[in-house]
Amino acid sequence: MRIGFIGLGNMGANMAMVLARAGRQLTVHDIDRERAAALEEAGAQWADTPRDCAQGADILITSLPRPQTVEAVMLGETGALAGLGEGAIWVDTTTNDVDVVERIAAMAAERGAHTVDSPVTGAVDGARRGELTLFAGGAPQVVDAVEPVLSQMGRVIKCGPLGTGNAVKLVTNYLWFTHAAVIGEGLMLGKRAGVELDVLWDAIKDSVGDSFVARHDAPSIFAGHYDPSFTLGLCLKDLGLCEKLARRGGTPIPIGDRVAERFAMAAGAYGEDVGELHVAKLIEDETDTDLRLEGDWPLHWEA
């Protein structure tokens, strides 16, 4: 089975490497060829354009930062859509706008190609280990056809028709960002009440207050780097997609609106290119108290 893979950023490069190491026949493309060096050493072939990457592929996987990037990569004379053949399957692992996915999928269908939206969760360390969770939306027989490949990157959850993969991903990110926005406040509440941070963190992890953010992300606050592997700008992008999904379904999200305000405040204070947990730095600056905790905090994107 021939696989094209476009988008070799923090997540995509690791996802593609998992497939290369599994012996998959892989052709790759990115706006920056240097990102493909390790994959080429692992046996992947380089394609000069998205169209070349899609040409002859049974499955084309895209892992891109924004809906606008997906449109730029898929459409146009050298876009990947022009290279998709009849029977090919486009799997978009981007956290994407459902409207964008459905529109490009309709264009792919005119060429006899199929689409699965399958955004992922699990952070860079999960991508590196092949332990992601992939939320797959699409026609059952099409999802079944790509599952053997996707399952090499992690656990596949079949979400329903095309578009539901992104709906599930946005719900999970909505909860993630909400937890991220409040974890700093919780830690600060305890610290300023006289509780040692290590004691407080241990208690949180063994209580109803436990969460992925508490276990995986709090160390980036303790270390003071706030996790640069995922930026505030990407948080704002995904929060905007959550808001659009809410409007589409007529669902009020008043807490989500407040969370978006805090992330916007953090981006205004520190810039959009800094780590996501700068949303917790807001409470540090507001109280003139830091949340540093001595310890060896491995960088999860390098572990």
Account of the 3D structure:
The protein is built from 13 helices and nine strands. By secondary structure, it is of the alpha/beta class. The protein has two domains: 160 residues, NAD(P)-binding Rossmann-like Domain (Rossmann fold), CATH 3.40.50.720; 121 residues, N-(1-d-carboxylethyl)-l-norvaline Dehydrogenase, domain 2. Helix 8 crosses helix 12, helix 8 packs parallel to helix 13 and helix 12 crosses helix 13. The two termini are 31 Å apart.
Amino-to-carboxy terminus distance: 31 Å
Give the overall shape, derived from the CA principal axes.
globular
Q: Based on the structure given, which CATH architecture of the largest domain is correct? A: 3-Layer(aba) Sandwich
CATH class of the largest domain reads Alpha Beta
Mean pLDDT comes to 97
- Contiguous uncertain segments of 5+ residues: none
| Total beta-strand segments | 9
Instruction: Report the sheet-strand fraction.
Output: 5-15%
Radius of gyration: 20 Å
Major β-sheet profile: 6 strands, parallel
What string gives the helices and strands in order?
EHEHEHEHEHEEHEHEHHHHHH
Q: Find the CATH superfamily of the largest domain.
A: NAD(P)-binding Rossmann-like Domain
Structural class: alpha/beta
Count of the domains: 2
Strand order of the largest sheet: 3-2-1-4-5-6
Determine the number of helices (DSSP H or I, runs of at least 4 residues): 13
Share of helical residues: 40-55%
